[in-house]
Amino acid sequence: MPAVPHRRAAALRWAAVVAGTALLVTAALTGRPAWSAGGSSSPGEDVQQVLARAAASADVPFTGTATSSGALGLPDLPRLGDVAALVGESTRTRTWWQSEQIWRTDVLTATGERGLYASGGQLTGWDYERDALTTGAPLTGARLPRASDLLPPALARSLLAGSTPDAAASRAGGLGERVVAGRLADGVRLRPDAQEADLSTVDHADLWVDRATGLPLAVDVVDVVGGPVAASSFDRVVLGDPDRAALAVPAPQGATVRSAETDVAAGAATAAPWLLPSELAGLPALQDPSSAGAVAYGTGLLRLAVVSLPVDQGRQALRAAGAAGADPLEPSAQSPAGAADEPTGGAETALVRAGALSAAVVVVPGSRDDGGGRAYLVSGAVQPELLSRAAEQLTTDPPERRP
Amino acid sequence: MSADGEMAVETTGLTKRFGRVQAVTDVDLRVAEGDRYGFLGPNGSGKTTTVRMLLGLVLPTSGLVRVLGGRVPGDAARVLPQVGAMVEGPAAIGHLSGRANLRLLDAAVPTPGGRRTRRRRVEDALEALGLAHVGRRPVRAYSLGMRQRLGIASALVRRPRLLVLDEPTNGLDPQGIALVTDLLLQLSAQGTTLLVSSHLLSEVEHLCTRVGVMDRGHLVVQDDVDALRAPTGRLLVTLAGGAPGAAATLLGRRLLEPPDGDRLVAADDGDVVGDLVRGGLAVREAVVERRTLTDVVLARTTAVGEGAGVAR
Amino acid sequence: MKLAALTWVELHKLALRPRTWVSVALLCALPVVVAAFLATSELAPRPGQGPAFLSAVLGNGQLYPAAALGIVVPIFLPVAVCVVAGDAVAGEAQAGTLRYLLVRPVGRTRLLVAKLFAVLAFTFGAVIAVALVSFVAGTQLLGTRPDALGTTTASLSGTSLSPQELLVRTLLVMAYVSVSMLGVAALALLLSTLVDSPLVAALGGLALLVASTVLVGLDAASAVHDLLPTRYWLAWVDLFRDPILWTDVQRGVLVQLAWAGVLLAAAWASFTTRDVTS
What we know:
By secondary structure, chain A is of the alpha+beta class. Chain A has helices spanning 5-30, 47-55, 83-88, 152-160, 165-170, 194-197, 244-247, 264-271, 311-323, 384-396; strands at 62-70, 90-97, 103-109, 112-119, 122-127, 132-138, 172-180, 183-190, 202-210, 216-223, 228-239, 256-259, 279-280, 283-284, 294-299, 302-309, 348-354, 357-365, 373-380. In chain B, α3 (98-108) packs across α4 (114-128) and α4 crosses α5.
């Protein structure tokens, strides 16, 4: 039978369509190849240099969108602000960063946005859905985590804050290079040292640092069972000075304006009559304890956050945790023998664990003239052993009153 | 024979399979320009599939189609404007009037000649089928016969050189049938080639000069009507006033069947009537026997249900 | 030239069809009903609960066109578009008019392109109608904010938008919402060339919509999220941020173009090589 030309044409058409589709899907799935990444410079920097540049990246200006997520399920306590969502869910942010003093970070939601504007030493918050502007929060000092803390550069810097670049580099290994948000990045894996490893629930943290500027582009913190503790990475980033206009604090007509609600940590700093020690459970304080009622302690990847609470709030939290089935802290391995029946020196404690996070409420009873006792919230991605040590020290070493 | 002229439709080894079903097998259709071609065959014989292949709707599995000198589907854009067609019944947009339907269809592929000429042609086509005065009534409210007329009118708008009509008189009343038949004969006289498929064999016999008969996907007969209806060689004689015995004696071995009353069947050698008259017998009527188209079709096709499952 | 004539014919067919106007009217009715309820009850959805913007429009009806598009985008607009796209070729096949178009002869590629244009015209027309009707409903029923005298509107970032900026952004939302329909429309059109039932073709387009919506909500399918046609449907909200966040809008447009490109190419390959037996 004679050949039919239209049948060959049909086969060709289908072949073209299938080939085009395959090409498109491949392109969409593989993303941009490394050779097209921007900002690459000569490779070969060692781990120490990469970490030093990452630690000093606070003044690298950029504009970008990032996605961060945490797997720390926090109990929903009043006045915790967005913290539970920040450390427990996925958050999308858009940031214009000029310097540590001047920046703007928006939390993007499907139906609105919550902006944070840093300028003139103050922090202004904007919430579209509440149509409210919150002014006058101090930029520095004690506070709870906020969205900007989970940006890859901020998260990386806080991970590096507990040690010098040299010390960090001694526990770090190179991960090679990868393209993050269209830029070539060098990877470094940080691990707790042998001593910390017993006390930490963090297995390692991976940092991906822009080769051209030293800006950390992605951070992954992984716990000892391989689950994520926190992850943050840029989806898109442009290096260089941000748009000035975007940094201007808005003045929406008709919006409610109120002064900053004092969140738990900042409130504790002013309300707590007791100073926190400059070293806790063998860990040095990362902030000046005399200026804050909430202090982070740590070395390497080990972090312990302590908040000094008003004692009645501490008792409330204790009751809430007890009702939720929390057990008291076990005595630490370092506690004096024979004290086992009276753990942590007479203080009432409750331990809450959620994934990699451990938190303990410690209430130390006291007489009426010292305010009825003391209360602390101690938490971190650590083993309960470290919390027990901290609780024992807080209980047995009576602190000084604030001047 | 008209096959000497230019071919309006010519297929070579035309074959179509739908999956595992062989719908049309190796059909060599020949329709000359000016023919009135009757396309016959029982349901499911492959008629409609063949017509669809002529119009580029169904693409052949193998074989070639030439229509008005061009390949289909290759040259369809050049050839099909000269073809008017109605396939498997009329179809129109129900909520629009017949006129609006024809205008829209005509506007879809504008021909040279401008808007007024094109409107004129639409009016002419409606006029020819007696639909000019239906007005704005939507096609939804048309009777079956009116829809059929609209379908034919639609095929006529472009004044085609080749008219392909499937069951053109389906659903028409006797006046409608007469109107359409006259119209087709008139168009044929003006040089239009007709390809008409129909079940009504008598209608085709009356209208067509040439027929093709499909059966189970094969073209089993293709010939001029005159050739198919050539005399069978038998003469049917009716005597006036009896005496069949005398007639039988006179005719001798030329008598083919025993006489039935005053009716005789004789072999036609040209002298039968003369011999009877010379023998003193009165002949009321003598008819040369011809096969009807029905006989031809029934003899060459399989009755419905006998054939293998064949697609339309 | 020939394509223009055919497109004109297809647009006429669409416009002469009562169903077209009924579906546009229904699309417009929903935002009007919502506006009426909002105006009488003054109860906006709690922050983060209802469709975007509904809490803001209570004070400012000028934002309502965008909010109304947000109301019809997830289901009503795609349903209307799928019905039209699914009907494009299958409807002609079912009515029997497809064969008469093709023997006229209308080239198959050209017919497909003209049908696509008609579907796009319907989509954009419906979006314009919804925007206009909801603008009237918004300003009449919800009013404008008294202290702002209707001159400014707040963006999601709290900055003020002048009426011109608001108009530009609303136009951008209309364009983006229209483009967002490309994926499902292209699938309905592809199915329309494959089957002879307009209903089946329309349901096929909606099946993609539902499947994509389910997968977008499923964390386990996060590997393919960015390729799903409904993934960036709500990104029109980003057009009301200040400065506009283009990332998702751009990705959304690219995803729609990719789906439309693949599906329309398949529709073309299928329609130009198939047997028309209807």
